[in-house]
Structure formats: C-alpha cells, structure tokens
Design goal:
The protein contains 15 helices and eleven strands. The chain is of the alpha/beta class.
Length: 360
C-alpha cells in the first residue's frame, strides 16, 4: 500500500497534466458515428468509434492477429514488453524484425505507462480492460479496451481489430476462412473414444506444469476428438508427479516456446516410463502459437494436433503453413522455415513424426 506524501502528489499532478495534453492533441483516426463524448472503445461495445488508425500501440497479446488483418506492422507504432517477448522469436519475429526496436509503452505486462504513451502519441492503444486503468484515468481518447471475459471473446476481439485497422472486410474474410478450414477438418475425423492429451512442460526452475481448465488448447482438443485429462482442474500452478501418473495420457504435447530439450527431459526420466504416452513415444514439442490468433496460429495448431492424434488423416500441415502464412503475412515459407516451425529435429524421436517432413 502506498502512503500519502510528495510522491503521490506528484503522481496526481502528472496524471492531470497528461489528461490535459492528450485532450489538446486529437488522434489521427477517423471517427465513426458514436455518442458525443465517447472516449474509449470496449470489446463488448457494438461500435468502437475507431476506424482506420494509422498509429497503433499494441499492449495486449494480439499483435500477430493485428498484423494478419492489417497486412503487416506498418501502422504499429509501439508495443508492450510482454508482446515483444512473445512475438520476437519464431517465424513471426523473423518476418517482422522491427518488433525488437519498436518503442515500448507498457513495461509491466500489458499495463500502459501514460508517460510513454504520450511520448509515442498513438491513435489507438489496444490493451486488456483489466490492465488499462492507468491510461483510462487520464481520459486518453484512443484507448481500446479488450475484455477477456466477454462472450464469444475471440470473435469479438477479432472484429474490434478489424475496425481499428480499418479492414473490417478482410478481418471477416479471414475469420470465415478459418471456420471453413475447421469444418473441413472435422468432416475427416475418425470416430472413437476421446484421446487423452496432456499439455505438459517444465518451469524454468524445473517444476512441472500442466495445462488446466482455462488452457487454450482444451477447446481445440475437443474439436478434433481429444480431451485434456487435467482440463477440469480449476487452479493454476505446479503439478505433482503423482497427478501426472494418474492422468496417464495417450499423448503429451509440450509447449515449444524455447525449444530446449523438453522431450529429452521427459523420455530420459525413469519416472515417466510408467506413462503410456512415453512408452509409445507419443510425446511432441508443439509449434509456437498465439492463443488469440484464430486465423493463423489456432488454425495451424488445430491441423497439427489432428494429425498427431489421428495418423490416418491426409497430411496437410505443411501445405496449411504455406497457404496461411502467404494469405496472412504475404510470406512464402521455405521448407527449412516450416521444418523449424514444426521442430522436425526435436520431434524426430517421437512416433510417426516423419510424416511432417518435406517430400523428397
């Protein structure tokens, strides 16, 4: 708790000055018909009031989605440290190296720093509603708040990004394409009992981690005949080895954010030899993904997972990577780039992964 004193007084003075300055500097966006005096856009509001922003600060982890809708990062003026850390690696960071040098306007997670925002002066600041209070208090006219708890959250956020970028038609078209791909895939799935798939990895300090009730992969698994045996556990935190042994999954997927020797630490641990997934060599390093990007990452993760769970499916993952990256980011992937994205080398010890290799 912060007590009263000179530091607090200065803070209120700074916030007040910030509000006066941003009120005197109009944003560059084109306003749509909204109620007079509206100053903020909410993901649960039908009309955001912002269309065609030319300078956007992205603090919530939706940068890959925004780039797909806006066809690049030309209009992204700043990001948060959290967004930079999540996107500067992998294929996305390779294609958009400017992420590493974009100004930071949020240092602690996705929380905006009013002083840094003022310095960059973006038309729109995209942030989580739950974290944007420091900027909301200033009355900044370009605040676009995304509500994590809103119904149909992903579609709502995607629509908001389409309006902010001024590319509503493209956003709607990409969303329809993602839905069509999912329906086509679901029509090919074989019937049978749900396959137990446990998302599992390790924290930096060596503790075990499993994806639980709110983990984004749970929905995708259900769409392709899988189930997370830990999917009803409401709490978050480290998992005990005894819990994992009780789950005894058919398949284990380990997040590939760092692509270290995750599979070696699992296959080489005598404790895990009791697990069916380990004995059957069905442990896989999952391609890097963004849980909010419906068109690119969620679609590609769904296709990859379907082939992992159902080896009888036709192999379409590599083709999907080429098509989707070309459509979203206008980049033609090479075989080496797809190999890196799919962790071909790291996964080569796992059952059936040769199917993901490029054709000779």
């Amino acid at each position: 708790m912060v007590g009263n004193g000179p530091g607090v007084s200065l803070l209120f003075v700074a916030v007040g000055l910030f509000g006066m300055i941003v009120g005197a500097v109009p944003p560059h966006v084109t306003r749509s018909s909204v109620a007079s005096g509206a100053s903020m856009a909410r993901a649960d509001t039908p009309h955001s009031g912002f269309e065609g922003a030319r300078r956007v600060a992205v603090l919530a982890p939706v940068l890959t989605s925004y780039a797909a809708i806006d066809q690049g990062l030309d209009h992204v003026a700043a990001v948060s440290k959290f967004v930079r850390r999540r996107t500067e690696k992998g294929l996305f960071g390779q294609f958009f190296p400017q992420i590493a040098i974009l100004p930071l306007v949020g240092v602690n997670g996705a929380i905006p720093d009013p002083e840094l925002v003022l310095h960059v002066n973006p038309d729109a600041v995209i942030a989580w509603q739950s974290q944007s209070e420091p900027l909301r208090k200033t009355g900044y006219p370009g605040l676009v708040e995304l509500d994590w708890e809103s119904p149909d959250r992903l579609k709502t956020i995607w629509d908001i990004l389409g309006r902010v970028s001024g590319r509503k038609a493209r956003a709607a078209g990409l969303w329809r394409d993602a839905e069509a791909r999912r329906r086509k895939l679901e029509a090919l799935l074989p019937s049978g009992a749900p396959i137990k798939v446990l998302p599992m990895g390790m924290y930096d300090d060596g503790r075990l981690w499993v994806g639980q009730k709110s983990y984004f992969l749970n929905v995708l698994l259900q769409q392709i005949g899988g189930i997370n045996p830990a999917g009803e556990i409401p709490y978050h935190g480290p998992a005990d080895p005894e819990e994992i042994l009780l789950y005894d999954p058919d398949v284990i997927v380990s997040p590939g954010d760092d692509a270290d020797d995750n599979l070696g630490s699992i296959y080489g641990n005598p404790l895990w030899q009791a697990l069916r997934a380990v004995r059957d060599k069905r442990v896989y390093l999952m391609p890097r993904t963004s849980f909010n990007n419906e068109f690119v990452d969620r679609t590609l993760t769904l296709v990859w997972l379907a082939e992992i769970l159902h080896p009888s499916l036709p192999h379409t993952t590599r083709a999907a990577y080429r098509e989707i990256y070309a459509q979203a980011y206008h980049h033609n992937l090479t075989d080496d780039e797809i190999d890196a994205a799919l962790y071909i080398v790291a996964n080569s010890v796992s059952a059936g992964y040769e199917r993901f290799r490029a054709a000779p």
